[in-house]
Amino acid sequence: MNDSTLLQLGLLIPLLALAGIQLTGRRANLREAVSLIAGTALLAAMASLYRPVIDGQVIAAHWLDVLPGMALAFRVEPLGLLFALVASFLWIVTTLYAIGYMRGHGERNQTRFFSLFALSIAAVMGIAFAENLFTLFVFYEILTLCTYPLVTHAGTDKARKGGRVYLSVLLGTSIGFFLLAIVATWLLAGTLSFKAGGVFAPGTSTALLSVLLVLYVFGVGKAAIMPFHRWLPAAMVAPTPVSALLHAVAVVKAGVFVLLKVCLMIFGLETLQSIPATEWLLYLAGASILLASIVALRQQNLKKRLAYSTVSQLGYITLGALLATSAGATGSALHIVMHAFGKITLFFCAGAILVAAHKTEIGELRGIGRQMPVTMTAFLIASLCIIGIPPTGGTWSKWYLMLGTFEAQQWLLMALLMASSLLSIAYLLPIPLRAFFEGSGGGSGGGQVGVETGGERPLTAGQGEAVEIREAPLPSLIALGVTAAGCVYLLLYPDVFYLLIKAGI
Amino acid sequence: MSHLPILQVILPLVAAPSCLIIRRASLVWLFTLGVSLAALAVSALLLQQVYTTGPVSYALGGWDAPWGIEYRIDLLNAWVLLIVSALSSAVIAAAHSSVARELAAGRQTLFYTLYLLCFAGLLGIVATGDVFNVFVFLEISSLASYALIALGRDRRALWASFQYLIMGTIGATFILIGIGFLYMMTGTLNMADLAARLPAVGDSTTVLAAFAFVFVGICLKLALFPLHLWLPNAYSYAPSIVTAFLAATATKVALYLLLRFTVTVFGVDFALASLPLEFLLIGLGLAGVFVASAVAIYQLDIKRMFAYSSVAQVGYMVVGIGIGTATALQATLLHLFNHALMKGGLFLALAGLVYQIGGCRIDAFRGLGRTMPWTMAAIAIGGISLIGMPLTAGFVSKWYLVMAAIDSGLWWLGILIVLGSLLAVIYVWRLVEAGYLQSPPQALAMIRSEAPLGLLLPTWLLIGANLYFGIDTRLPVAVTAAAAQFLLGGAAP
């Protein structure tokens, strides 16, 4: 099959899936089969692009010119393919998980849910393969609009409020800053096409470029740099698979991907180094990392804590891109992958705990490891991946980020990264450790349940040993097992992605 | 072919009294639709002719220009003629069921007669090349529209119409005084002659006063902030179809007049030198954008909300004239077209809502995504276009406007323009939230009761046009680029 066709299939498969899901909406099993098949097909299509891209082939597709010089056009870049591969793989896993979760939790409007999910993936593909900023902006906005109904899925007052924050921050930043930055780029450079090494002529005023860079960093609200991070915790009202979509597969990853791409292919690393604002923004990203970690420490709601952890980790990726060294950019791109796998596992676990044990607060999770051993083991592995220590792939990205600060001789930032890693140990690790090694909440809660149900269920007789294993539904369990295994696998074989990144930077 | 310019105006003008002969409401509707479509065909032919061979001049009754009335069609008014007749066709196509529901049986024929008169007046204003003729047609269209607004069901429509009558008459009088001054100084009423003779007497205070009178008069008709007070009442209490028609065409024609007088008749140099026009237009335009959008956010009546939004959108167009570069004028002309599409579609969708529910307060939107999915989707897409999301028509004009602002070194203006569209997000999203996230009130619970197809199809025609012209922008961009060039005296196409 022609490579350009494959690229366009990447956009069409999710749309076909959307149609299929709508048509089979009344028969849940068939509907979910459509999602899974489409996911597999998409992954296969993306995987078959891998070889040609590594070999440096140009794969492009031009749809139409919307305005003179501004086209809806696509080109496969190694980094874009990286993002597309991660997203398409995680789409399958998340669908699997969502099947278990949505049914286990008895959610309504499941057809709408899966349809919008497919549409979001289509938007992600558009972002990943956009040939120019205009195309990218179009799909960026589509992604915002089609995830909004997912965030407000529950339809409650709380969901509506969360959705309002979500939409106002994302639309506000993208229309207020991002669009302005794109217009200015168009006027300054005369083009919106991404180009390795940047699009600006060497003599362009660095003061103007500084303003532009600030507009981009704040404009891409999906990257959740403080102070524009509020939408992420607000969006926690969504069902857990949506949180997974937001945090790992699509939304935030689209944000940092756009930032990375803008740094690499609109500014170019050399130009970036010469801009005064870069330094300032580096410290902003650093502050975002540190502050979000501290806030995460104070959160008692599991999903909220994970949300702030995401804000902090996104700071790492932005910081890596802004370091403007090749190691920094490599670390940044790798962290997109590693964080995706780690964070999606964590959210899967949080959802599994909610479905199986109906618990949302961290304080309630003591001793839950005995009830849900698989889930909590996965939680432990994923925590390690986020922190960045073996045996998980997170090690590599943190390593390159450190190397990046070293290359750029940013000693303060290096110290900051270390401090934040310590903080992430403090806010993540106690959760699985307490789940395994401490008695259940307050010592009595679980015990009482055991006693009360003792009459009906003779199997749960004694104290301590009594807890019955009650995991989430099987599809969800498989999903979180797969992503946790992925975290470990990436330590041993990161080169699938590493080669792509090397080709892209 | 050579009689096209007069055909454009005379067709609806003659057709208007003929309605009274036909009498049967549905026949009259068909007749009006036919006339409107014919006018659309004429304007399309005219635009095509002007685009390929340059401006067309037509001497009325065979009397040549300085003595007789000249109709002069260049790219600018050919473009506006096309917008007016196209939107009128879409609106009148939707009119039948809505008019039958909102107006008493005896008044429907009257409605179509007035409608055609108003339509003829608007086309006449745009087509003519004679300033006194402008005044005449302005009065024809205005008087017809006062009567049209007064046909509204609500008794407050009478008050709204009266208010508009007073304001509109003041505006028209101002324009007439201005024209009188001009005639006194130059001895001609022909626009081309005026443009040629005015520079010689440009220093006199009489010309200055003439300009001031004409400018304020047009701004009243245009509903430029702070002269907009008549508009929200007129739009909210008029019959739904009238609102859609006026919103899509009348302000556009007033904006055309503003452009015609400042750029062609007085000339940019005079206009910018004699008054701080740049400052005035940008300042008032921006004030309009922000004040009207902010007021729109708090409206409970959605027709009224979109009326305020219209005031805001007029602000954008006026800002474009204020910047004054070719790109900025192009942005204004693009927004003229795109805004007509948006507001036409939105007000027609509201007409569907009024048809089904009997009102369009914000409560009526609760659960609308379930009960009237197509109408609600139309409102959502029209709203998204109003915000200026990419792949909708609204994005194209906003893009050009922001680009023009930054290109002229007015960074702050670019920022304010995008901030203005954020206010649109707020007022549009109230509807989306109510429509899709709230459950319908008990009385109508979960019954699908879509607007009649006759209303829905034209609505979606306009909404579809919003999407189409957001993706395939060749026609509007090419025509407006040429028209803006032509206006600024560049190479005439």
Low-confidence sequence ranges of chain A: 441-465
Order of strands, widest sheet of chain A: 1-2
Q: How helical, in percent, are the residues of chain A?
A: over 70%
Residue share in β-strands of chain B: under 5%
Q: Give the beta-strand count of chain B.
A: 2
The helix count of chain A comes to 21
Residue-averaged pLDDT of chain B? 88
Task: Summarize the helix and strand pattern of chain A as letters.
Answer: HHEEHHHHHHHHHHHHHHHHHHH
Task: Calculate the terminal CA-CA distance of chain A, rounded to whole Å.
Answer: 28 Å
**Main sheet: strand order of chain B:** 1-2
Overall geometric form of chain A:
globular
Radius of gyration of chain A: 22 Å
Oligomer: heterodimer
Helix proportion of chain B = over 70%
What does the model show?
- Helix content of chain A is 72%, strand content 3%.
- Chain A is built from 21 helices and two strands.
- Chain A has helices at 3-23, 28-54, 78-104, 110-129, 133-151, 157-189, 206-219, 231-234, 240-249, 251-267, 269-274, 276-298, 302-322, 326-357, 373-387, 394-407, 411-428, 430-437, 445-452, 474-492, 495-504; strands spanning 60-67, 70-75.
- In chain A, 59% of the residues are buried.
- Mean pLDDT of chain A is 84; it is low at 441-465.
- The relative contact order of chain B is 0.10.
- Classes of the chains: A mainly alpha (505), B mainly alpha (493).
- Chain A binds chain B through residues 64, 66-68, 72, 134, 137-138, 141-142, 145, 149, 152, 155, 159-160, 163-164, 167-168, 171-172, 175-176, 179-180, 183-184, 186-187, and chain B through 384, 387-391, 396, 399, 402-403, 406-407, 414-415, 418-419, 421-422, 425-426, 429, 433, 436-437, 439, 470-473, 477.
